[in-house]
Design a protein that fits this description.
The chain has two domains: 2-132, Double Clp-N motif (Orthogonal Bundle); 136-183. By secondary structure, the chain is mainly alpha-helical. The chain is built from eight helices and seven strands.
Length: 189
């Protein structure tokens, strides 16, 4: 995405999407996916450049990009995940044999299965780190965080729209902070 916007292009290609995913998960220009180490500089990705803001100019997607995102959606659904995550998109690249992904495969000397296994390992370690860092909110705190009435939050919990847990042996319920994002929907264009 960054490359497309910086180059003032209007179409988002699979290479742009892969570069955006890698930049998003990189730390100091390096991505560790399981046992794989991806150096963005080796791939020609300028990781120090700031990512461009969202701005008002939307990018259209190429047919190849749409096919890749459809594959990522199938992966998401096969796992029973609630929403499309970056690991689903990265796993979808396991079948891509062109462009930046071909260069990445050659550089790392890997095949499709090794790529998907590395993404799975990274996803599991990421989930474990996030689970450790999760803090829980009371319905009142969740309401304040979203600017909603506490009864609205309680209604979302009752309807199943917002996951919550009960404190063992207590009436008190707690909501994971990351689960609040499940209530958010994008605005129409």
């Amino acid at each position: 995405m960054a490359r497309a916007k910086l180059d003032h292009r209007t179409a988002l290609t699979p290479d742009d999407l892969l570069e955006g995913c890698l930049r998003r998960v990189a730390r100091f220009g390096v991505v560790r996916l399981g046992r794989l180490l991806v150096d963005l500089e080796v791939l020609g990705i300028k990781w120090i450049e700031p990512l461009p803001g969202r701005g008002s100019r939307a990018l259209t997607r190429t047919a190849a990009t749409n096919a890749l995102l459809d594959q990522a959606g199938r992966i998401q659904r096969s796992e029973g995940a609630r929403q499309l995550e970056i690991e689903h998109v990265l796993a979808a690249y396991g079948t891509v044999e062109a462009g930046l992904m071909r260069q990445l495969r050659r550089t790392l000397g890997i095949g499709s299965g090794e790529w998907r296994a590395a993404v799975a390992e990274w996803s599991e370690s990421r989930a474990a780190r996030e689970e450790e860092a999760v803090d829980y909110l009371s319905p009142e705190e969740a309401a304040v965080a979203l600017g909603l009435h506490v009864q609205t939050i309680r209604a979302y919990v009752r309807s199943g729209k917002l996951p919550a847990q009960r404190v063992a042996g207590e009436r008190a319920i707690r909501i994971r902070r990351p689960d609040l994002a499940l209530l958010m929907e994008p605005l129409g264009s």
